[in-house]
Amino acid sequence: MAMATATAQGTRFQSKSNNKRSDFDSKKREAEKWAEIWFTKLCQFHKLPRDCQWQFNSDHVIQFLQAKVKDGFPAWKRRKIVENLVSFQRKANTPNPAELRFIISKLKQIESQDKRRSSDEDAKRGKRYTAVVNAQDDSDLTEEEIVGKINPREPDTIQQLRRKLRLVGHAYNTELAYVKWVRRFLKSRGVVSLEDCQNVSRKDVEAFLTDLVVDGNVAPSTQDQAFYAIQFLFDHVLEKDIGKVDALRSKKAKLIPTVMSKEEVSGVLAEMDGLYLVIAQLLYGCGLRISEALRLRVKDFDFDQRQITVFCSKGKKSRLVPLPELLVEPLKRLIGRRRTLHEHDVDQGIASVWLPHALQRKLPKAAGEFRWQFLFASARFSKDPQTGRLHRHHLHRDSFTRALRRAADRSGILKYITAHTFRHSFATHLLQAKEDLRTIQELLGHADISTTAIYTHVLIDKDAPVISPLDRLTVAA
């Protein structure tokens, strides 16, 4: 018996040893593959034939890394490149790997500094990796695959702006906003082409931003967006230092958000039906933004755990929100109807949905799988503006906005109601229910609790209300 046990243990030990050896060999082959890939890309950058005898040095690598910085590669990714090149040097027995190790140590310092920066700063730099695809490595994608299609009839300045925005991973809505502001800026200065833009200076930027305040009377957030678009143009397209911009700042006060009472929410919801009712209930019941609600996919709903996963929200963050019990059955029925539509698309051979990042390439069948489909699907297929491919996308937000306005008018509510008003009401009603502010921050997906704290300004304590002096005067009389 003891001998049999010892034999079994020995077999298990041998099996584990073989598995570890297999994993080690697999990782070694993978590392060698990437060392070869990055050496080839280094040769291509320096316009040299791929020759294993080329003894590149730190200067060659630094020039290569500087180009990657302009392409939006973060410090950790540049460090990976150098580590792969060190592995290649070691394999090829070329001298001076110590020079590259010094570069690695410097990149580690930059990497640690990057990690200490806030998530808002990460979003401004266009961080491309989110919780939904953190396990996916798209470093082997070509520039053409990342950039997609760009209209060749557009001015070369705008084409290059779109290319850089996509390379660093900005959202398509950000691309639309930045292109709009850069077009306005270039038109105001009377320039179009990249060659003409070389004469544009900081003074032009200051004049444009000041005109937005004086003539346009824009809000601070609007002026900020215009500045960030122009700054991106200077940094990534023109490759010029914009310097310190001294423009007249907009001083419009921030408004307190409009909030509906519980009775008003019930009144508006009572005037809605079908898909739009479910969307409105998600906005109020989960505190979602309209863009987050419309982008929900079938796989994002966990009915057993009663929760919804919100992927790729504002700031490239993901979060979990509770699934209201009231929505369980309506959502299940809606998913059933969505499956019927998807099966029709499959039968017609046209089932397809837009996928984020490199998933389309790494999971080529995912676009036709039911779990990846948008729940609130559009009735028609539409063309992806970046790739030109046809997909069944989600509903457009304008269709929900029209339905909401009709419902608000029929309910008799006189406040100006938008989709975001449901989100404001969600946060305010939770605060009235004595919910913790930090919990509400997590549910809303705010990076800074000061953003959530604005909802404390719209609260009136019903248990101890402030009595108006006019009411006190009436009582005294």
The general outline is: globular
What CATH architecture label of the largest domain applies? Orthogonal Bundle
Could you tell me the number of beta strands? 5
Largest sheet entry: 3 strands, antiparallel
Report the oligomer. Answer: single chain
What does the average pLDDT come to? 82
Order of secondary-structure elements? HHHHHHHHHHHHHHEEEHHEEHHHHH
Supply Rg: 28 Å
Question: Overview of this structure, please?
Answer:
This protein is mainly alpha-helical. The protein is built from 21 helices and 5 strands. It has helices spanning 2-45, 58-70, 75-92, 97-116, 119-124, 143-147, 156-167, 172-189, 194-197, 202-214, 220-238, 262-270, 274-286, 290-294, 328-348, 359-362, 397-411, 419-432, 437-444, 449-452, 469-476, and strands spanning 301-302, 307-310, 319-322, 382-383, 390-391. The chain has a 3-stranded antiparallel beta sheet with strand order 1-2-3, with no helix packed on it. It has a two-stranded antiparallel ribbon with strand order 4-5.
Could you outline the blueprint of secondary structure elements for this entry?
Elements: H1 2-45, H2 58-70, H3 75-92, H4 97-116, H5 119-124, H6 143-147, H7 156-167, H8 172-189, H9 194-197, H10 202-214, H11 220-238, H12 262-270, H13 274-286, H14 290-294, E1 301-302, E2 307-310, E3 319-322, H15 328-348, H16 359-362, E4 382-383, E5 390-391, H17 397-411, H18 419-432, H19 437-444, H20 449-452, H21 469-476
Antiparallel strand pairs: 1-2, 2-3, 4-5
